[in-house]
Task: inverse folding
């Protein structure tokens, strides 16, 4: 695209768009309920590439076993899973449909995820399922997850796995940006501020309707294009971004007005990787992910009652409190929290705590074995929780 200088009209439209986005994101309180569908395409299905990666991981695994050998049965189970796990990581195609409940108020938040459906193109062999070494998404363990913050503590609750960890600091969790120009830029390799682009505007005709187009171009060839709903300069219908290594497109439908702000009921986002042909130097787009938000409810006038920003724990939940060093472990009982002696949890491996502490965003899931604890409450589930 030809580089152009920004003009005042384009600057005014851009400012209106960003101001509208800021008002949405800075809304002091509200609740959103939405259906989120994530379609992730394979990263690489080339058999030679899969073979190379598998051989490399087998070599590394065997070298580690020589330095720090594990029991023979454990080593056998882990080694035979490497081929499938490598293929699943690179060549699996998945679709996950979830219901998202998000509440926010003055810095507090409640972010609930309920997995409604999960489909994978690759399924692990029976022997890997039995051994618990297949690194797949385990819906039964990750169906319900809740992340909360109430200014005093952050609680990450893996409800289906009866696992809870508590920490002092909140997640880097912000208002879900399912609307406007920012939803595209947040998912891209966008390297600079918007005022570093040269902006222009022009009328365009799409399906026999006149629309306004806003175009931002950077000196290195990156660009952003926004097509607006006719007559509304704060309601994008289509946003497209082209970067150095990635590209993204967002489409918006069915705007509804809530407390003076426009929200789209449906947003469809496509994420691309850019592949360069070594022979020609030309880049082409490879679709990597499709995301659909279907907004069921937006309420910014609701007054939240007690408990709105708390995770409702169940008897038998195993809690790990990382506000203490070393972390405290206890079990949720019917009427009180029973602290479990550290000696009774001696079978918790260091990697369990490390993995549990590293799960710090809603897109993550439990991927570590849960320990057994001697309590009078109902049994804590055990077994391998895998991605």
Result:
């Amino acid at each position: 695209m030809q580089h152009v200088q920004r003009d005042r009209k384009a600057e005014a439209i851009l400012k209106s768009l960003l101001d509208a986005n800021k008002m949405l994101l800075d809304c002091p309180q509200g609740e959103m309920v939405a259906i989120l569908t994530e379609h992730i395409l394979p990263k690489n299905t080339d058999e030679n590439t899969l073979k190379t990666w598998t051989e490399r991981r087998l070599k590394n695994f065997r070298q580690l076993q020589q330095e720090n050998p594990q029991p023979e049965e454990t080593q056998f189970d882990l080694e035979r899973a490497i081929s499938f796990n490598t293929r699943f990581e690179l060549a699996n195609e998945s679709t996950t449909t979830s219901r998202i409940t998000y509440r926010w108020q003055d810095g507090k938040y409640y972010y609930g995820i309920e997995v409604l459906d999960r489909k994978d193109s690759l399924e692990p062999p029976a022997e890997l399922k039995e051994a618990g070494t297949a690194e797949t998404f385990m819906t039964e363990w990750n169906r319900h997850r809740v992340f909360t913050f109430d200014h005093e503590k952050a609680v990450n609750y893996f409800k289906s796995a009866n696992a809870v960890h508590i920490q002092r600091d909140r997640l880097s969790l912000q208002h879900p940006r399912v609307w406007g120009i920012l939803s595209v830029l947040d998912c891209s390799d966008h390297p600079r501020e918007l005022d570093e682009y040269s902006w222009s505007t022009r009328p365009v005709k799409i399906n026999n309707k006149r629309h306004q187009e806003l175009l931002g171009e950077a000196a290195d060839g990156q660009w952003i294009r926004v097509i607006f709903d006719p007559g509304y300069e704060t309601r994008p219908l289509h946003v497209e971004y082209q970067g150095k290594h990635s590209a993204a497109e967002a489409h918006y439908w069915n705007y509804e007005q809530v407390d003076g702000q426009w929200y789209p009921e449906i947003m469809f986002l496509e994420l691309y990787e850019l592949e360069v042909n070594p022979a020609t130097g030309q880049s082409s787009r490879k679709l990597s992910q499709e995301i659909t938000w279907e907004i069921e409810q937006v309420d910014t006038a609701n007054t939240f009652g007690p408990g709105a920003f708390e995770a409702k724990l169940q008897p038998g939940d195993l809690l790990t409190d990382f506000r203490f060093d070393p972390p405290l472990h206890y079990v949720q009982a019917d009427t009180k929290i029973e602290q479990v002696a550290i000696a009774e949890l001696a079978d918790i491996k260091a990697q369990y705590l490390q993995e549990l502490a590293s799960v710090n965003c809603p897109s993550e899931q439990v991927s570590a074995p849960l320990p057994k604890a001697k309590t009078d409450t109902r049994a804590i589930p055990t077994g391998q929780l895998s991605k």
Observations:
- The longest helix spans residues 47-67.
- The first strand starts at residue 29 and ends at 40.
